[in-house]
Amino acid sequence: MTSSSDRPATAPDARLIARFAAIVGADHAITDTSEQAPFLREWRDLYVGRTPLIVKPGSTEEVSRLLALANAEGVGVVAQGGNTGLVGGQIPSAAGTEIVLSLARMNRIRSVDPAGSTITVEAGVTLADAQHAARAAGRLFPLSLASEGSATIGGCLATNAGGVAVLSYGTARALTSGLEVVLADGRVWDGLKALKKDNTGYDLRDLFIGSEGTLGIITAATLRLHPEPQERATAFAALPNLDALLPFFRLAETHAGSALTAFEFMSGLLLAFVTRHIPGTRRPLAGEAPWFVLLEISGPQGNASALRDSLLARAAEEGLITDTAVAASLQQAADLWRLREAASEAQKGEGGSIKHDISVPVSRILDFLVSAGDAVERICPGARPVPFGHFGDGNVHYNISQPPGMAREAFLALWDTMARAVHDVVVSLGGSISAEHGIGRLKRDELVRVKSPVEIDLMRRIKTALDPKGILNPGKLLEL
C-alpha cells in the first residue's frame, strides 16, 4: 500500500522552483538554508525537515495559483502558520521533496461586525491579534492558548485547538461560522458565512477544521465573538488529594454555572518545576499540596468575585481545598495564569519529557490518572508524571519527565512504548488519543491502531476524493 508520504517523492527542479517563486515574488520565496531554518524545526526539536523552497503568499489568489501548479506537477505542499504545533504536522519531511507554504503574510483583519458578533480574519492573523481586534470592538474572542502570541488562526483551525476556555466557549470549531479554503487543485471554496444556522447539505466547514492541512488550506475564517465579561475573578486552590478533584469541579460547576469559564488543574510536582525553572514565577501558597486548581469565574462587576469567594468558602467547609490565593488585581491574576501557561516550558529544565494530549470523560479522569501512573511506573520505574490540563472538558496533558539521573536519550527511546501504554488506558476509558494538538506525524501510526477499520476507511476515502494526488501535507495524519 502506498502512502501520501511517498507519492510526491521528487523535489521540484530549479525551473519549477522559479515558477513557484514567480507567483509570490522573489522577496517572498526563500531558498537560502539559513533563512529557512526557523520554518523547518519544531520547538521541542522532535522534528527537523528540509525543503527546496518556502513561499509566503500574500493573498488567496496566490495560494490558489501555488496549489494549482503543485497539483499539476505532483509537488507536496506543507502549509504552516506560526509553527507552534506539537505533533510535527507543520514540518516537512527530511527528504526535502516538499515545499513549505507559510501563511504569515496573510494577516489582515478583513472585517469586524460587533452587532453580528463576528470577525473575519485571514489565516496568518495571530490569535493574540484576533483577540485584540475583538476587544477593540467591545467583544471577546475567547480562544486562548499559551502560544497565542505566535499561533495563527489558520493553524488553530487546522488542529481544532482548544485552550483554557473550552469549558465555557468550546473549541475552535465551535467558534467558527465560516471558512475560505483553497483545494488541492487550486479551486477556492468561499464559505465565509456568518450564519448560526445553515442546514443545506454536508457541513464542509467542519470537514476542513481539524484536517491538519491534508484536505485543503484554510486562508480565512469568520469567527464568532462573545460579550466581554465585566469582571474575571481568579483563584488558585490547593487540594488535599486526588479524590477531591472531581467533587471540587462538580461543586464549582453547580455553584457558578455558565459563569465558570476555566477550571485548570496541575500536579504539585509540576508547580515545583514551574517555580524552579521559569524566571519571575513564585509559589502563590506557602504549603505543599499534591494537586492545585486554577479557576476563573466571569460575569458582571462584583458578581464574579462574590461567586468565587462563596465557592471557595463552601469548598473549604467540605474539605475539598486546603488553602487558596485569590487575585486582587489584573497583575495578580496574570501571575497565577503564568504558572499554568508555563507548564510545558518548565519541563525542559527537568530533562527528557514524553508528552500525551488525551481526553477522557470527566468522570473518568481520576481513573485515568491512577491507571496511567501504574503503567508508567511499570515501563520506567522512577519516571515522574506531571499531569495538567483542562479538567472541565476532560483534556489531560499527561506529560512524563525522566527519572533523575537517567540519560535523556535512554528515556526518550521509551516514547513509543510509553505512548502505547498510556493510549491503551485512554481507549479503555472511552477517550481520545488527541484532544487538541492533532495527529501530525507523531500519532499517525497510533491513529490506525485505535480507530476502527470503518473510521479509517472513511477518512481515506475523503482524503482521496479531495486530494487524489496526495500533495497536501504528505505523510501527516493518515496513510492512504
Number of helices: 17
* Strand tally: 21
Overall residue-averaged pLDDT value: 94
Based on secondary structure, the structural category is: alpha+beta
Radius of gyration: 23 Å
Helicity range of the residues?
A: 25-40%
Task: Report the major sheet.
Answer: 7 strands, antiparallel
- Order of strands across the main sheet: 15-12-14-13-19-20-17
Shape: globular
- List low-confidence stretches: 1-6
Distance between the termini: 8 Å
Relative strand content: 15-25%
Report on this model:
By secondary structure, this protein is α+β, with helices and mostly antiparallel strands. It contains 17 helices and 21 strands. α8 runs antiparallel to α10 and α13 packs antiparallel against α15. The N terminus is likely disordered.
Defining key terms:
globular, 17 helices, 34% helix, 480 residues, 5-stranded antiparallel sheet
Q: Gist?
A:
It is globular and about 70 Å long. The protein is built from 17 helices and 21 strands.
Write the layout of secondary structure elements.
Elements: H1 14-24, E1 29-30, H2 33-36, E2 54-55, H3 60-73, E3 77-80, E4 99-102, E5 109-113, E6 118-122, H4 127-136, E7 139-140, H5 153-158, H6 166-169, E8 176-182, E9 188-191, H7 204-208, E10 217-224, E11 226-227, E12 231-239, H8 245-256, E13 260-267, H9 268-277, E14 291-299, H10 303-317, E15 323-326, H11 330-341, H12 343-346, E16 353-354, E17 357-359, H13 365-379, E18 384-385, E19 388-390, E20 395-397, E21 400-401, H14 408-412, H15 415-428, H16 444-450, H17 453-466
Parallel strand pairs: 2-4, 3-4
Antiparallel strand pairs: 1-2, 5-6, 6-10, 7-11, 8-9, 8-10, 12-14, 12-15, 13-14, 13-19, 16-21, 17-20, 18-21, 19-20
